[in-house]
Each structure stands twice: as C-alpha cells, then as structure tokens.
Amino acid sequence: MIDLYYWPTPNGHKITMFLEEAQLPYQIKAVNIGRGEQFDPDFLKIAPNNRMPAIVDHEPVDHGAALSLFESGAILLYLADKTGQFLSADLRARTQALQWLFWQMGGLGPMAGQNHHFVQYAPERIAYAMDRYVNETSRLYGVLNKHLSDGREFVVGGDYSIADMAIYPWIVPHLNQQQDLADYPALQVWFERVAARPATVAAYQAGQSISNQPTVDEEAKKILFGQTAKTVR
Ligand SMILES: N[C@@H](CCC(=O)N[C@@H](CS)C(=O)NCC(=O)O)C(=O)O
User: Fold this and answer.
1) What's the pLDDT tens digit per position in 164-218?
2) Contacts made by residues 86-91, CB under 8 angstroms, sequence distance 24+
3) Predicted TM-score (pTM) of this structure
4) Which residues contact 112 (CB under 8 A, 6 or more apart)?
5) Can you give 128-180 as a three-state secondary structure string?
6) How far is the CA of 71 from the centre of ligand 1 (A)?
7) Which protein residue has the closest C-alpha to ligand 1 atom 12?
8) Closest atom, ligand 1, to C-alpha of 33
9) Residue 101's CB: how many other CB atoms inside 10 A?
C-alpha cells in the first residue's frame, strides 16, 4: 500500500495518473495546501520542502523500512522502477522519457506555474511578468507540438510513459495559461488521447472526491504567497 500525500493540483495529478495506470493500491492523505496543511510537522518529516505530492511506500522492493519520497519527478521515476512500467528498459527510449520528464520538471512546470501566478493570482497586473510567462509557456507548447508533429502517439513514440503523465496535468489548465490548443494541433491530438485514458479519468475523479473547490482563494493566497526562509519549519 502506498500513502499518497496529495491535493488536486497539476503536480498531484501526475501521481494519481501513475497509480491508476499501474493499478497500485494507494490511499490518499489529503494535504490542503490552501489551509496550510503542508506545514504539518508530520508531513514535513517526509516532505521538508513543504510541497506536495509525496509518498510513503510501505512495501519497497528491498523489503526494508517504509520509504518516503517527495518531488513529483522523483516519485514517477521511483514508481516506474518499482513496477517496471511506463519507463522502457531500452537505453534510447528510457533516455528520451527522462529527457522529457526533466523538460517538464525544469521548464513547463515552473514557467506555467509563474504564468498562473502572474496572470491569475498576483494582486497587481504586471504586464512585463504576464508577457514573459505567457510567451514562455507558448514557446514550450510550441516545442512539444513540434516534437509530436511527426505522428508519434505519445511523447516517447508508441509507448505511454511517465513523461506523458508529467506533462499532461500542466496542459489541462491551458485556457488559464492563455493558450489555445487549436494553435498546437499535434499537441491537441496527444492531449485528447491522454485525456481519454480510463486511468486519467479515474485520477481526475479521485481529485474531485478530495476537493472540487479552487485551491487558491483569498485565505490560501496568504499562506501560499510570501513564503521565505523564515516560514521554513
Ligand atoms: N517540484 C515540486 C513542486 C511541488 C509543488 O509546487 N506543489 C505545490 C502544489 S502544485 C504545493 O504543494 N504548494 C504548497 C505551497 O506552496 O506551500 C514537485 O514537482 O513535486
């Protein structure tokens, strides 16, 4: 059994997408980040970065003590290695998947995250910041669209992988990111293909059952924005 510390946000959805695909038994431990539960001392023991998702695997393959892990990319990689699924053992396919996984972790996620911040949440509308992150999101969508334009089914050719699972939840809020998928036809086809997977549907339903309210309301803004070294516990 895997404990998943989770709230329904893009980084959280990545992990439910994997767990549903692999049909691994898991239980969700809700971490309401809009109410400060990411600062709970017990959560910080497994996720010192005060961010979800995190997991505790009670049956790691070395049969040792329960293993805890934070950072969604590391969790996807861990689960892929544990199950032998969604990450090819073939050198070239594996390298491709990892390349796009890190592209999401270092590029699409942070840039789209700043896009969300300045376009939706910032108390001032700062044109330079909004343009900067909307443009960079657009550039990244363009890169992915070009990659997918050769007719490949998934990010790594014909095999659905952790790279697709990492990227998809960051494309879901494309309208909020001021992106029109019609401008990225190959990306749009891929997006619809991933959306239609039963495990994707189940993952987003699991999220709905935890919360169907926006995470970032006025109370949440005070908790989420303005963190510094002084708020590290
Ligand atoms: N790089 C981290 C980012 C995780 C992250 O930013 N999680 C957000 C929600 S998407 C969070 O927990 N925020 C709580 C906070 O800002 O205090 C990962 O991919 O796991």
Assistant:
1) 999 999 999 999 999 999 999 999 999 999 999 999 999 999 999 999 999 999 9
2) 86/18, 86/21, 86/22, 86/159, 86/160, 86/161, 86/162, 86/165, 87/161, 87/162, 88/156, 88/159, 88/161
3) 0.98
4) 10, 133, 137, 140, 170, 173, 177
5) HHHHHHHHHHHHHHHHHHHHHCCCCCECEECECCHHHHHHHHHHCCCCCCCCC
6) 8
7) 51
8) 14
9) 27
